[in-house]
Design a protein that fits this description.
single chain; alpha/beta; Phosphorylase Kinase, domain 1; Transferase(Phosphotransferase), domain 1; 32 strands; 22% helix; transmembrane helix; ATP-binding
Length: 685
């Protein structure tokens, strides 16, 4: 009596034999990792399964790794009630998972991962009360996660990642106390993370990354004493990181990157004694990197880039192995030169003392000592001082850049500032496209020194932009400053500016692109307002100053009239961060209506804001750009609701009274929520 049939990795090809039903005592059928096919291209049913229904003692079916294609037949539910393991991952399966699969009530493991399955996860799976492993990752499954899955009270592993699932995470999943592995990553889930998930005290791995999840309160993981891996990256999480993370002594990997978290890195992180991987990049974290983290003996990967951290980078223990990419794009970190950050103040002070001691030791003349002391004192004081103004400087070559550049090289880069290389012009001067000697494409902003205020504009823009490092703010590569020529060398933005995309006949932005661009701009402004000890006010937020790179990521540029906050905006007209918020609101309106504030349609005393306030109640179809919202559009209701929500936000940003205007941090969160609602309703936009 044949009980086991295993032909794995035998390079067996051709169709699966249909006479398997004669093997009535078969318990284990394994024919994985071969080159099996089911028949003709039009035969989409796994006919071999029908013969296996006669094998009443069958416990395992494994056909994984074969290009079987086709769809699962409904008679899969006729297989033996004794079946415990069904493996069919990476079989190019298509179509839906039949509801009849729920008849396999004694199944312990179901693996249909890495296929092309679509449709919903059948609610009938929730009836498989003995199921311990559910593997449906890397398919095209959509719809919400059925609450029926919460009935799988013995489930140990749930892998639903890399699908198109949307809606909330059912809170009842937190009642499956047997869960050891929960993977819902890379879907379109949108809800608060259920708080009772943090009560699964025996869970080992949680991955909720790359969704649209948010938190209604701080994430408290203090009960997860067995946790090995936690990945919450690429979501909409806000708030502080609680110190309770420090009790997770078994945690090996923690990824909270690409969220909107703020506050400090908890010193309690030194309690993560097993940690090997820590990623906190792309958040709004501030303060210092806690020195006690040097105690983490097993930490191999560490990333806090794109935050607002400051102070000295720890240098001992595991930190001696990290490179500059772990710390790039922060507010004011300092440390050794190899990390491409400025030296710390105390290091400068120590260095000055050493130079003085050497000077005395080797008999430096008294006059030389005095000169050295004066120079070092000036350097030390400059490093200590945090400026509260934007001073005019005679020479801006101290710009924090890896290179300096001459007028001659800029001339060569632009073919003598040839008109054909001109990207645009304004009151400040002209911008040229250029190619440097190393092949790098750049934008070169040449200031017209005959224009009143040009010198001051150049100095202000240099001083402001060299202290601003952010992924959504145009990067200054270097500058050139001589007596009769001043220019900034900037990152080249191959897709031009937002004004071109809004008002040129040959350009078009869809709904998602416009929302993404305005999220990028909001994030940049929020960084200017809150990412520095003294808020920076751009003062000139408009479409022509919003530049788009090759990936259509937006970057705010042109800081020629930027100011540091001195007083709040009032009736006297003194600028404040609320001035930028107002301008942002107006740009929001222009982006979705294609109407400029200067259009002739706004006659007499009516402004674009007044027009929006009056027109919005009539409906989005009356205000949206004709290329964005058409009556015959299949998704007109979804898009109209999105535009209405954004226009309400725009009105809140541009309120008449400054104190009634939104904070940019709230604008970022609200726009991201609007975007996620839009994505949830339109799968292919």
């Amino acid at each position: 009596m044949l009980k086991i049939l295993s032909l794995s990795q035998n390079l067996f090809s051709g169709p699966i034999p249909k006479m398997l039903g004669n093997l009535r005592h078969l318990e284990w059928f394994q024919i994985s990792d071969n080159n099996l096919i089911t028949g003709s291209a039009t035969d989409h049913e796994w006919s071999f399964l029908s013969s296996l229904t006669n094998c009443r003692n069958l416990r395992t079916i494994d056909v994984s790794g074969n290009p079987l294609s086709g769809v699962l037949p409904t008679y899969i539910g006729n297989l033996s009630k004794s079946l415990q393991f069904f493996y069919a991952y990476n079989c190019e399966l298509q179509g839906i998972i039949p509801m009849e699969i729920g008849n396999l009530t004694n199944l312990l493991l179901l693996d249909l991962g890495y296929n092309k399955l679509s449709g919903l996860i059948p609610a009938s799976i929730g009836g498989m009360r003995n199921l311990q492993g559910l593997f449906l990752s890397s398919n095209k499954l959509g719809g919400p996660i059925s609450k029926s899955l919460c009935g799988l009270e013995r489930l140990y592993k749930m892998y639903l990642g890399l699908n198109k699932l949307h809606g909330p995470i059912p809170s009842c999943l937190g009642n499956i106390t047997s869960l050891g592995y929960l993977y819902l990553n890379s879907n379109k889930l949108s809800s608060a993370i259920p708080s009772n998930l943090w009560n699964l005290k025996d869970i080992l791995e949680i991955d909720l990354s790359s969704n649209h999840l948010y938190n209604s309160h701080a994430i408290d993981v203090g009960n997860l004493r067995s946790l090995l891996k936690l990945n919450l990256s690429r979501n909409l999480l806000t708030g502080d990181i609680l110190s309770t993370f420090g009790v997770l002594q078994t945690l090996v990997s923690l990824d909270l990157s690409n969220n909107i978290l703020h506050g400090h890195i908890p010193e309690s992180f030194d309690g993560l004694i097993s940690l090997e991987f820590l990623d906190l990049c792309n958040n709004n974290l501030s303060g210092v990197i806690p020195k006690p983290l040097e105690k983490l003996l097993y930490l191999k990967y560490f990333n806090v880039s794109f935050n607002r951290l400051e102070g000295e980078i720890p240098s001992k223990g595991c930190f001696s192995n990290f490179s500059s990419t772990s710390f790039m794009k922060n507010y004011a970190l300092c440390g050794p030169p190899r990390l491409l950050v400025p030296p710390c103040k105390n290091d400068i002070h120590k260095n000055s003392q050493m130079i003085i001691l050497h000077a005395f030791r080797y008999g430096l003349p008294t006059l030389g000592i005095v000169v050295v002391l004066i120079v070092l004192t000036i350097m030390y004081r400059r490093c200590q001082r945090r400026s509260t103004t934007l001073p005019i400087k005679d020479d801006l070559l101290s710009l924090k850049t890896p290179r300096r550049i001459s007028h001659a090289e800029l001339s060569r880069a632009t073919n003598g500032f040839e008109e054909s290389n001109m990207l645009g012009s304004g009151s400040f001067g002209c911008v040229y496209k250029g190619r440097l000697s190393d092949g790098m494409e750049v934008a070169i902003k040449v200031f017209n020194l005959q224009t009143e205020g040009a010198f001051r504009s150049f100095d202000i823009e240099c001083d402001a932009m060299r202290n601003i490092v952010h992924r959504n703010i145009v990067k200054v590569i270097t500058c050139c400053s001589i007596v009769d020529f001043k220019a900034l060398v900037l990152d080249y933005m191959s897709n031009g500016n937002l004004e071109k995309w809004l008002h040129s006949e040959n350009c078009f932005l869809d709904m998602i692109q416009r929302v993404d661009i305005m999220i990028d701009v909001a994030v940049a402004i929020e960084h200017l307002h809150n990412g520095h000890p003294t808020p920076i006010i751009h003062c000139d937020i408009k479409p022509s100053n919003i530049l788009l790179d090759e990936d259509m990521v937006a970057h705010v540029g042109d800081f020629g009239v930027a100011k540091l906050l001195g007083e709040e905006f009032g009736s006297t007209g003194i600028v404040s961060i609320k001035s930028d918020v107002y301008s942002y609101g107006i740009v929001l309106i222009e982006t979705f209506t294609k109407k400029k504030p200067t259009d002739n349609v706004f006659i007499e005393e009516e402004s674009i804001r007044h027009w929006m306030e009056r027109s919005l109640p009539k409906g989005a179809i009356e205000i949206a750009g004709v290329d964005l919202l058409r009556r015959e559009d299949e998704y007109i209701v979804v898009k109209a609701n999105c535009i209405s929500s954004i226009m309400e936000l725009a009105l809140n940003c541009s309120a008449e009274l400054p104190e009634e205007r939104k904070d940019m941090k709230d604008v970022v969160v609200e726009l991201k929520k609007i975007k996620q609602r839009l994505i949830n309703n339109i799968q292919h936009f």
